[in-house]
Each structure stands twice: as structure tokens, then as C-alpha cells.
């Protein structure tokens, strides 16, 4: 039997537009939903329409002073600080409302699972993982990932795993729960020496009672499908099997793709599809099937993100789309009104995401990253970092 899956969506998510020429353009969400509809992925799916996150929900993660700054920033003549008004996080009218709605969307997805209406729930507009307690950062105003996790903790959940596959380190979520052993954060990202925000080293393992519950896998630039999947399977399954989360939360940024303009990993859409399959499997085998799916980064707006996230929605709904599926002509016509860039013709890049599992030796370029992370955190979970069976 297929899992029950809820999809949280409202066209109002498209109001989170930092500026007309900002890399985080909501057209990627519009085109994802249109492509998913065109391929039948959303047939019969009635979206869950969210309410904005309220002050109490946001205060679990963000200071009242920061919330006040976000609300007042559009009318403040001299700026308000808190990371607002920068090139990454320009101020725009309706900023609080748009940001609170995305956070509310992730709470709505969490509520679908917590109240038993769904085993899986998706908020494609979510994944704003860089926002900190008292400041905006990295295109992110409110950290909906942390807000949803904090809401689940408030409901009595005691073990939540967060796996971040965005090309950038999931720093805001890590920091929010850095001393909390109830939340295991795992981030696979491009090496911090080569990409913003410059954090996410293997030695960042948590603080106090949270020691061992922050996990970071730093991948060298140029890592492709085979290396990325080798690293994932060399680290993530063992930790999730040991932790046994009650819910698996995933941030699924598509900016690891070779065509993404802001980073330097080299995954394909086919690789992304394999990643989403692996996350679905982990949810089934380690979290009782409970899977909260969030979007994230992704700046190849027309050629990559809509295809990647349509695969993500399809995987979450158990309606997998074959890689050789043709892109509908109606979607191409719509996308052509938004860009003059060449558009894809199928749901595949023609890549083979096959990989060799890590076997305890240094064979592939990513093996040093795998072993560094395993040696930093595996002993804290009673696992042998040098034994590929663990």
C-alpha cells in the first residue's frame, strides 16, 4: 500500500520574492508545480492550504526583536540590521507575511504527520535553512525547517532526524539544535573552504548534551552522482538506523546540480532522483515511514529545479516518473515565456547514477570526507568508524 502523502501549497508562496533579479526566484516553484501537474504527479491531490506561522510558533526559533525588525523593515528609512537589507537578503514589502506563510507551510506539513492524516508531507516552498535566531542569512528570513522541528518537539516528539542535501551547509538548523540530543542534524554539502557559509566541518559535532548529534560531510568541488551517493550511503544509513527517528525531515535543495550557477558540485537530475529514492527508503526503514519533505536552494531556475523537484514530489507520492519521460509541450511553452534559455526535453540528463559503496579504503576522491566524518561522530553512537558494516 502506498503511503499517505499531503502536499502543502498555495500560490501565495510565490510572494516570497526578495527582488526582481534575486537568484532565489519563485518562478522555480511555479514551474515545478506546473510540470508536476502536466505529468499527472498531482492528479487527485487536494493541496493543504497553510496559515502563516504565528508569533508563538516563530518565537520557538527566532527572537521577538528579530520578528519586530522583519515586520518593520519595509517602512524603516535607515535600516534595521539583523542581516536585513543586504545583497543576500534585501528588504521587500510583505516580507514578514511571505516569510511567516512559508514557515506556516512547514508547520502545516508537520501537523499532517503529527495528527495522523499523512505519513509523508511536502512543502516545496520550505527549506530556508540559513536563517539564524536573530538574523536573516543566505536568502532566508525565517528558518521554516527549525520552526517545524521545534513545533514537533513541542508536540512531544523525542527523536527527529534532519538530513540536508543542499549544496550549502545547513548552518541555521544545526545552530538551532546544536546542544539538543533530540534532534540529529546531518548535512552533506560542498566543502566549507570553497563555498559560503564556510561552516560544516566534520569536527562540528554538537555541544554539551548534543555532542555527536551534529553531523557534517564536506564534499570536494566537482563531486558528481557516484561520489555524492557513495558519501551518503557511507554515513547516513548507519546513523539513522542507530538513532531511529520518529520523523525524518529532509531539506532537498537542488543546487548540487552541475548547471547550478552558485556552486560547484556536479550532480545530474538523475542523481537527484536517486537521492530522493534513498531518502524515501531511509524514512521507511528507520523512521516508521514518517517523512517531512522541504525544498531548499536551486538556482538553475528553468532547466533543473522544476525537473528535480517534480521527481521529488513524485517520489514522495509513490508516483515515480521514469527518467526518459518527455517534458509536456504545454510546460515548455509556459517556460519559454519566462526565459530564452534552452529548455530540457525529458526528465533525465542521460546520466547513470550508479555508484560503488564505501568499503573502508581510500579509492574514491570523497573517501577522505567519508572517513573524517565517520571518525568524528560514529564512536559517539557506538559505531565503528572503520568498519564498513557499521
Automatic annotation (TrEMBL):
<comment type="pathway">
    <text>Ketone degradation; acetoin degradation.</text>
</comment>
<keyword id="KW-0006">Acetoin catabolism</keyword>
<feature type="domain" description="Histone deacetylase">
    <location>
        <begin position="22"/>
        <end position="314"/>
    </location>
</feature>
<dbReference type="InterPro" id="IPR037138">
    <property type="entry name" value="His_deacetylse_dom_sf"/>
</dbReference>
<dbReference type="InterPro" id="IPR003085">
    <property type="entry name" value="AcuC"/>
</dbReference>
<comment type="similarity">
    <text>Belongs to the histone deacetylase family.</text>
</comment>
<dbReference type="InterPro" id="IPR023801">
    <property type="entry name" value="His_deacetylse_dom"/>
</dbReference>
<dbReference type="Pfam" id="PF00850">
    <property type="entry name" value="Hist_deacetyl"/>
</dbReference>
<dbReference type="InterPro" id="IPR000286">
    <property type="entry name" value="HDACs"/>
</dbReference>
<dbReference type="InterPro" id="IPR023696">
    <property type="entry name" value="Ureohydrolase_dom_sf"/>
</dbReference>
<protein>
    <recommendedName>
        <fullName>Acetoin utilization protein AcuC</fullName>
    </recommendedName>
</protein>
Amino acid at each position: 500500500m502506498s503511503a499517505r502523502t499531503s502536499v502543502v501549497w498555495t500560490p501565495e508562496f510565490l510572494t516570497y520574492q526578495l527582488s526582481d533579479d534575486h537568484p532565489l526566484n519563485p518562478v522555480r516553484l511555479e514551474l515545478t508545480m506546473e510540470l508536476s501537474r502536466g505529468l499527472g504527479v498531482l492528479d487527485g491531490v487536494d493541496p493543504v492550504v497553510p496559515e502563516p506561522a504565528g508569533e508563538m510558533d516563530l518565537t520557538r526559533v527566532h527572537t521577538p526583536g528579530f520578528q519586530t525588525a522583519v515586520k518593520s523593515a519595509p517602512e524603516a528609512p535607515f535600516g534595521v540590521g539583523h542581516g536585513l537589507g543586504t545583497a543576500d537578503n534585501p528588504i521587500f514589502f510583505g516580507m514578514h507575511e511571505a516569510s511567516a506563510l512559508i514557515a506556516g507551510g512547514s508547520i502545516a506539513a508537520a501537523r499532517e504527520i503529527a495528527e495522523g492524516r499523512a505519513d509523508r508531507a511536502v512543502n516545496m516552498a520550505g527549506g530556508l535553512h540559513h536563517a539564524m535566531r536573530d538574523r536573516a542569512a543566505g536568502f532566508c528570513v525565517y528558518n521554516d525547517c527549525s520552526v517545524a522541528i521545534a513545533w514537533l518537539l513541542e508536540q512531544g516528539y523525542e527523536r527527529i532526524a534532519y538530513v540536508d542535501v543542499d549544496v550549502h551547509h545547513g548552518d541555521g538548523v544545526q545552530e538551532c539544535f546544536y546542544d539538543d540530543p533530540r534532534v540529529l542534524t546531518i548535512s552533506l554539502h560542498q566543502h566549507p573552504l570553497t563555498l559560503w557559509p564556510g561552516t560544516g566541518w566534520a569536527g562540528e559535532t554538537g555541544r554539551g548534551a548534543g555532542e555527536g548529534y551534529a553531523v557534517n560531510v564536506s564534499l570536494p568541488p566537482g563531486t558528481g552522482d557516484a561520489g555524492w551517493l557513495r558519501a551518503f550511503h557511507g554515513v547516513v544509513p548507519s546513523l539513522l538506523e542507530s538513532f531511529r527517528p520518529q520523523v525524518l525531515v529532509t531539506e532537498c535543495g537542488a543546487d548540487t546540480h552541475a548547471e547550478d550557477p552558485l556552486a560547484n558540485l556536479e550532480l545530474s537530475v538523475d542523481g537527484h532522483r536517486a537521492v530522493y529514492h534513498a531518502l524515501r527508503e531511509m524514512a521507511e526503514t528507520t523512521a516508521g515511514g514518517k517523512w517531512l519533505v522541504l525544498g531548499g536552494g536551486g538556482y538553475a531556475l528553468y532547466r533543473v529545479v522544476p525537473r528535480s523537484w517534480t521527481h521529488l514530489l513524485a517520489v514522495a507520492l509513490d508516483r515515480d516518473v521514469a527518467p526518459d519521460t518527455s517534458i509536456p509541450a504545454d510546460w515548455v511553452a509556459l517556460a519559454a515565456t519566462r526565459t530564452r534559455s534552452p529548455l530540457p526535453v525529458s526528465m533525465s540528463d542521460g546520466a547513470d547514477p550508479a555508484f560503488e559503496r564505501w568499503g573502508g579504503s581510500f579509492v574514491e576522491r570523497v573517501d577522505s570526507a567519508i572517513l573524517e566524518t565517520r571518525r568524528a561522530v560514529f564512536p559517539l553512537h557506538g559505531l565503528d568508524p572503520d568498519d564498513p558494516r557499521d
